[in-house]
Amino acid sequence: MFEKLTDKITDAMRFVTGKSSISEKNIEDAVEAIKMALLEADVNLRVVRRFVNSTIEEAKGEKVLRSVDPGQQFIKIVHDKLVSFLGDADPASRALKLRGPDVISTVLMLGLQGSGKTTSSAKLALRLKKDGRKPLLVACDLVRPAAMEQLAVLGGQIGVPVHREDGAADSVKVYQNALAWAKLNLIDTVIIDTTGRLQIDEPMMQELSRLKNAANPDEMLLVADSMTGQSAADIAKTFDEKIGLTGVVLTKFDSDTRGGAALSLKTITGKPLKFTGTGEKPEDFEPFHPDRIAGRILGMGDVVSLVEKAQEVIDQKEALELQRKMEKENFTLEDWLSQLRAVKKMGSLQSMLEMIPGMQGQINEEDIDKADLKRQEAILSSMTRKERANHLIIGPPRRSRIAKGSGTSVAEVARLIKKFEKMRGMMKKMAKMGKGARGMDGAGMPQGMPKGFF
Question: Model's pTM, two decimal places?
Answer without folding.
Answer: 0.66
